[in-house]
From TrEMBL:
The keyword Signal applies. One of its GO terms (biological process) is T cell activation. InterPro entries: Ig-like_dom (IPR007110), Ig-like_dom_sf (IPR036179), Ig-like_fold (IPR013783), Ig_V-set (IPR013106). GO terms for molecular function: MHC class II protein binding; protein tyrosine kinase binding. Residues 34-105, 120-223 form the Ig-like domain. The keyword Hydrolase does not apply. It comes from Chanos chanos (Milkfish). GO terms for cellular component: external side of plasma membrane; membrane raft. It holds the Pfam family V-set. It comes from the Eukaryota. This is Uncharacterized protein LOC115818401. Keywords: Signal.
Amino acid sequence: MADHTLLFLCCLIVTTLLLTGVSGFVITVFSSYGENITLPCKNVIYQDCSSTTWIYYNKTCIKLVDHGKIRKENTYRADRLSVGSDCSLNIHKVKARDAGLYTCQQFLHEGARQTVVDYPLHLTVLKISSSLKQTEIRAGRTVTLYCSLHRKTTKCDGLVRTERLRLSWVSETGADLQNTSTVTISHLSECNISLTVELQDQDNQREWRCQLTKGKKIQTSVSRVTQWTGGILNTP
Ligand SMILES: *[C@@H]1O[C@H](CO)[C@@H](O)[C@H](O)[C@H]1NC(C)=O
Ligand SMILES: *[C@@H]1O[C@H](CO)[C@@H](O)[C@H](O)[C@H]1NC(C)=O
Ligand SMILES: *[C@@H]1O[C@H](CO)[C@@H](O)[C@H](O)[C@H]1NC(C)=O
Ligand SMILES: *[C@@H]1O[C@H](CO)[C@@H](O)[C@H](O)[C@H]1NC(C)=O
């Protein structure tokens, strides 16, 4: 019961924070699908993490870490989480559905009121998805790769504007890819861009890279290799 009250309070704090939308207060963390990441906690009181609680919020509040311990029971991803020696939250092999708001809170003991303010972080995950399954990829087929910035609780346009973000498909040298006779690049939204390619023999083993920049600085990137076995589609 006490636990529910607390969680409700945590939620209230997080929700208030979202609604007030104090810009610049919530730090945005940019990650790429499959990466191991660390979310820092900057309000630690007890260095052994016994005061640290981590809350995850997407539509509901989920307590991931309780007094320094991973909660095994209610999270599908408990096995991918760990608490760092500095009470940071490590997420192993980040997935698109890990995107959302995380906040680090401090409670001096069970049932205590929260001390110090939240340390909220907004996690975004960059991921490529494909219109074709790996087994369908071969020369002669047309495939579309979507590169999307997954986020929860924030709208794409607002995030892109305040953080000055840009998504692009880039070459090995980091230059923006241009449309060619076989490649078409489209901006479906500011958080979702596509690359459609009519696969040629020379695209076997080719790596397609999508990059997220903030201002002039590269934040993160993801790539997908188009590959198949057996090369020639038609031998005359
Ligand atoms: C993530 O961490 C695991 C275990 O610590 C390690 O085996 C793996 O190589 C790491 N992955 C990346 C992409 O760094
Ligand atoms: C919120 O997260 C929980 C667990 O982390 C997950 O089961 C649920 O599908 C997520 N909800 C949304 C709307 O993403
Ligand atoms: C990106 O846009 C495509 C085409 O409209 C859509 O199918 C896909 O679901 C979108 N991806 C995301 C993550 O919104
Ligand atoms: C590529 O072509 C598509 C479709 O014709 C167009 O919408 C898009 O703006 C072009 N992209 C670039 C980078 O020129």
